[in-house]
Amino acid sequence: MIPLQNWLFPKQHRRFNGLRWARIILRTLHIIGVVGLGGGILFHLPENTWYPYLLLTSFTGICLILLELWTNAVWLFQLGGLAILSKLGLFFLLLHFHYYEQFLLISILIISGIISHAPAIVRHYSLWHGKPIDYLPIHDEKSLVPDKKG
To answer: What UniProt keywords apply to this chain's record, in alphabetical order (predicted)?
Structure first.
């Protein structure tokens, strides 16, 4: 049996035929959800008008996160993954602190715009490792400890 850490952090990212199209379709639906949700919040529309967009945003966001984790959970150590997890936290705050919902929505959009257009060297940067990483070298115990070099 493969240890859990080897399954979560393979050296090569997992792929399947249609992965790129799955991501494109999920991201497109996610953007539609965010636009509908954002419009409802920014223009103070009744909840029943933007609630379906909230569901679409939530469902596609969860699917995108699960897809990234399945591909390679190293994503959790990269700035791209940390940005998404930060957005998820802000999203939950948005649902519970209505007075700040416009500020929280704009914050989510700013993070989205920056991280989605940042070069791979930034998105793949690991704060833990102090450099961009594409896989977590779990077989080398020294690699799990941050490099102390200058």
So the answer is: Membrane, Transmembrane, Transmembrane helix
